[in-house]
């Protein structure tokens, strides 16, 4: 009887390890709690490594040696599989190459409202030579202060925003605002009007969709999707689908806080894209496994939920997650990506 129980537990452990490692196969990547667990893949590696050590210790007891050895094998396979996925996505690329005349640098930073100083945001954007800056949880007042500071440092920007602040359920909350800064060198842009009920925007927190006035240049989307808390899972799934729909045309750049990893985006891509027709630039340039949230954890233990994505009109040539600003006040790290116009 004990032997049968051990076999049953081993089978359950193997299935559980498979689900936690690749929930996409079981179509659970956007289902609670698997969506949350897979987004912390590095923590999953640590947990399975601890289970492996525990199983080896239990194997010292002769009566359960076979069972413990089976659990150890499952754990080590899970460590190798999850670790291999992280390494394939990249634990830190070579940084950004020299900027060319055609380069576009995109920075995204969820600033946590007033927690991050406007001057620091401006200094960071100027230092990174950013042409597009997506700032979730940033009011237009702060965004304009950033733009003014950048102008004084020789890098003028136009400030655009979307605001859900009039909503009664979350009054005067920084997450009700998203600001988008665009360099005049990219041309004039205007924001597409949207509604705060989620029919033409993300559901709970706003996304900015800016289009070139003369029709030349990329559509630029500053993203903020709702966090996948258990009570908001349906809204979160709808947000990701809506964002995928925004990346249906040929020339789109998206950046912001997606509150999702590339695992969560599985099956939302089109024509080989990660989300819609957009591809994840950090994964393409070797930084896809570096955590942008939370600054309370080391980068390689955090979760990469802030992204820059672009369609095939652009080729990503470098990316960097800035870990030097962890004490700035925000719980997110900035991500900066360099894009080049695709050849042909």
What labels would you give this structure?
alpha+beta; Deoxyribonuclease I, Chain A; six-stranded mixed sheet; elongated
What's the assembly state of these chains? single chain
Biggest sheet architecture: 6 strands, mixed
Q: What does the average pLDDT come to?
A: 92
Strand content: 15-25%
Tally the helices.
8
Structural class: alpha+beta
Helix content: 25-40%
Shape: elongated
What would you give as the CATH superfamily of the largest domain?
Answer: Endonuclease/exonuclease/phosphatase
- State the distance separating the first and last CA atoms: 68 Å
The tally of domains stands at: 2
| Low-confidence regions | none
At CATH level 3, the topology of the largest domain is Deoxyribonuclease I, Chain A
Strand order of the largest sheet: 3-4-2-1-12-11
Number of beta strands: 12
Q: What is the alpha-carbon Rg in Å?
A: 22 Å
Tell me what the CATH architecture of the largest domain is: 4-Layer Sandwich
Element-by-element helix/strand order: HHHHEHEHEEEEEHEEHEEE
Please specify the SSE layout and strand pairing.
Elements: H1 2-21, H2 34-39, H3 41-58, H4 65-89, E1 104-108, H5 118-127, E2 132-136, H6 140-152, E3 158-163, E4 177-182, E5 189-191, E6 208-212, E7 219-224, H7 233-246, E8 252-257, E9 279-280, H8 281-284, E10 306-310, E11 314-321, E12 335-341
Parallel strand pairs: 1-2, 7-8
Antiparallel strand pairs: 1-12, 2-4, 3-4, 5-6, 6-7, 8-10, 9-10, 11-12
